[in-house]
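Example 3.2
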Amino acid sequence: MQMMQWYNEPPQWHQDNDVIHMTAGAKTDFWRHTHYGFVRDNGNFYYQNVSGDFTAEVKITGDYRSLYDQAGIMVRESETIWLKCGIEFVETVQNVSAVVTRDYSDWSVVPLDVMPISLWLRVKRRAETVEVQYSLEGKNYSMLRLAYLTESPLVQVGLMCAAPEGEGFAVQFEGFRLF
């Protein structure tokens, strides 16, 4: 794996073997315009540059506490073209969430009936299309979203977290793979 780098480094983070521990920064988010009328580009994003098709996978375990606490995978071309997906905490419910942004953010969620300890996430890029899949046990995956993102071959891919309303929360990303 290539060397990873930060876009908005969080207040605390460290790595133990294949587990990356982060504390999401307070009042951070990635969002553009839709519904709320603001632009935020200050979420925490640990990434590497990738050209062409790829698959990214990770197991996410978070201590979600405040409205909109979120953690997952991000695929980013620029501040106006990106996708973030994973868990988003809304009104005490963990939702599998995907936001596709092409200047305006487009949010979709699947509320989970149970509060899983962890979520397994897989993002596949084929040409200009991204497919988001999730699993509650790491074996059987369901599709959450299939979306057009960008024709640009070069994107940034990695781990993201944000705490738009809260003071931050702890999250672990385990076994991040990019192939």
